[in-house]
Design brief:
232 residues, alpha/beta, TIM Barrel, eight-stranded parallel sheet, globular, binds pyridoxal-5'-phosphate
Length: 232
């Protein structure tokens, strides 16, 4: 293929190397860690090139951008929604998204449930946790996470698979560790109602640390595709 995407090839090689290194050092052989390519502002041709290199999971942030790009994506990759999601937009993505990482309220869970049931499907969801307690970020507080999970577990058409977080950029090591503790505690406390097997954390600046602290999905944008150009 004629293209100028050799930087993506090289970036992915480095990412895989670092993920494998952390995995070999800190994780057990039965653990699952997936590399998600986060596609915001990235042209479908570049996304498809990453898929041709073996990326099988894409992360979408914005409903409108996703709608304009999805027909051009190589359909072999699975697509998850990771951005903040308005309840009135759930209907636009419900058919083509297999997991929603950003559920932080019962209200949003209820809408996803209703839409999933009416489309005859089950949607996997993660509960987004605001582990750093930052005002600028979405997510439920760590102390309310267990209760929200219990409530979401009652709803039809959704299956709670785990937790997601975007830790504060500084001290992410500390917060990734806290997130792992929270995940383990809630998995144990709520094991009679849900079976949690996905911890989604780690971005371009902290994915190797996230693998160390038990992440199952690292969500990588700029380290793979380069700096985002919002004018593109
Ligand atoms: C943009 C984004 C990422 C990827 O961020 P990078 O720092 O570019 O790797 C991961 N998760 C979410 C929720 C995002 O919005």
């Amino acid at each position: 293929m004629e293209n100028n995407f050799s930087y993506i090839y090289e970036n992915l090689r480095i990412i895989r190397e670092r993920v494998n290194e952390a995995y070999a050092k800190y994780r057990s052989p039965e653990d699952n860690v997936r590399i998600m390519a986060v596609t915001k502002t990235v042209a479908p041709e570049a996304v498809n090139y990453a898929v041709s290199l073996g990326i099988d999971l894409l992360g979408e942030n914005r409903v409108q951008e996703y709608q304009s790009k999805k027909d051009f994506y190589d359909s072999s990759a699975e697509v998850h929604f990771i951005g903040s999601l308005q309840t009135n937009k759930v209907k636009y993505i419900i058919d083509s998204i297999s997991m929603i990482h950003s559920v932080d309220s019962l209200k949003l869970g209820e809408i996803i449930s209703r839409q999933s049931v009416s489309h005859g499907k089950v949607t996997d969801i993660l509960c987004e946790v605001n582990i750093g307690g930052e005002d600028s970020k979405g997510g439920v507080s760590p102390s309310e996470t267990g209760e929200l999970i219990e409530q979401l577990a009652q709803l039809d058409g959704i299956r709670i698979r785990g937790l997601m977080t975007i830790p504060p950029p500084s001290d992410s090591d500390v917060f990734l560790g806290r997130m792992k503790e929270l995940f383990d505690r809630i998995s144990e406390d709520k094991k009679s109602v849900v079976s949690l097997d996905v911890l989604s954390m780690g971005m371009s600046h902290d994915y190797a640390e996230a693998v160390k602290y038990g992440s199952n999905i690292v969500r990588i944008g700029t380290a793979l595709f380069g700096a985002r150009n919002y004018n593109r």
